[in-house]
Amino acid sequence: MQPYIAVPATVALVWRAYSRDSLTPAGLVVATLTAIAHAVHPWSVFFVLLGVFFLAGTTVTRVKHDVKARLTLSSSGSSGGEGRRTHIQVLANSLVASVLILLHYRQLLARDKSSVASQGCWPYGEDLLVVGIVSNYAAVAADTFSSELGILSKSRPRLLTSWNFREVPPGTNGGVTFWGTTAGFLGALTIALTSVLLLPFCPVGRTSRTGKLFGDNQPGLEGGSGWGLREKVAWVFAVTIWGGMGSLLDSALGGWFQASVVDSKTGKVIEGNGGAKVGSLAQREAWLTKNTQVPLVGSHVKQDGKSSRRIESGIGILDNNAVNISMAAAMSFGGIALTAYIWNVPLGDILR
C-alpha cells in the first residue's frame, strides 16, 4: 500500500480497537505490528481483509453480548462472554497470514528486479501464496462467526466428535448447530466477496505485465491466465466452501484436543481467560485436595472431595489459541496444496 494510505489506515484500525477496548495493551502492540506487516505489501487487499475480519469479528462478538454472557461462565467465576482479546489471540488468527504476506512481498520484489513479472496483476494459475492468505482469513472469519452467532441458536449444540452426535451445553468445544455452521459460511463469504472485489486479477483480453501489453489473454479455465466472470465466481464459491470447512475443522480439533470444562452446579461451560486452558486447573485441585486433605484457596472442590467442575469433552492437550492457529495453518497450507494440484503447479513455487 502507498504510505499516505497505509499510515492513516493503520492508525485508524488500532485507534478503533483502543477506543472500543477490544484488545489488551499487548494485543494492541501485536495488532499494530500485524497491520504494518499487511500494509507493506503493495496490494491493498490483504490489509483490507485484516480490517474486514477485525471489524466483522468485533461486530458479531458484540451481538447480544449480554445474552451470550449468561450462557457460559468465566474461569474467574464471573459470567462468560468474550472480553478483550490478547496478543496471543491476535497471533492465533493472523500470524500465518502475516508470514505468507511477507513471503509474497519478497517474491514480488524479486520478480520486479528480474523483469519476469510485475506487481500489476495476479495471473490465474500462479502465486499460490495468495490462495493461502485468503484461505487463512476465510477460515478464521468463519470460525468467529460460527462461534459468536452459533451460541445464540435456540437448538442445543451437538458434539461433532462424538459417535452419537450427542447434545452438549452451549459453548462446548466441538459443539455445532445448523445456524452456527450457516453463520460460519457467511463469515467465509464475507472474505470471499472482499477478496474478489480487491484482488488485482489479470483480466481476460490484453494484460499489462512489466509495463508491456501482450496479446489476447485467454480465461484461466480455458488454459490462459486471465480471470473472467467464471473464474471469479468459482473463486468466491471455493473460498466460501473452504473457509466454512475451516470452521468445522476448528470444531473437530476443539472437540478432540481441547478440554471443555462444565460447572457441575449450573451446567454451564467455563471459558478460560484469553483462550487459556481451564480443565487442567480443576483436575489438579481435585487431585491435591483428595491426596493431601489440605483446603486450597480459591479451589473448585466441594466439601465432599469431589470437583465442582467436570470435563464435558476433549483431552486437554491444546488450549483455544493453539486450536485456532492449528486450524488457520491447516486451512492456509491445505488450500495452497489443493490449488497447486488443481492448477498443476509445483508446491516449491511458494518459496521462489
Summary keywords:
352 residues; alpha+beta; four-stranded mixed β-sheet; two-stranded antiparallel sheet; 10 helices; 8 strands; 9% strand; globular
Strand proportion: 5-15%
- Give the topology string: H per helix, E per strand: HHHHEHHEEHEEHEEHEH
Helix content: 55-70%
What's the shape?
Answer: globular
Description:
The longest helix has 29 residues. About 9% of the residues have low confidence. Helices cover 55% and strands 9% of the residues. The two termini are 22 Å apart. Helix 2 packs parallel to helix 5 and helix 3 packs antiparallel against helix 7. The strands form three sheets. It has a four-stranded mixed beta sheet. A hairpin with a 2-residue loop joins strand 4 and strand 5. The chain has 352 residues and is of the alpha+beta class.
Would you spell out the secondary-structure blueprint of this structure?
Blueprint lengths: L2 H17 L5 H15 L5 H18 L2 H5 L2 E3 L12 H28 L13 H23 L7 E2 L15 E2 L1 H21 L6 E5 L2 E6 L11 H29 L2 E4 L5 E3 L7 H14 L16 E5 L6 H24 L9
Parallel strand pairs: 1-7
Antiparallel strand pairs: 2-3, 4-5, 6-7, 6-8
Helix pairs in contact: 1-2, 2-5, 3-6, 3-7, 5-6, 5-10, 6-7, 6-8, 6-10, 7-8, 8-10
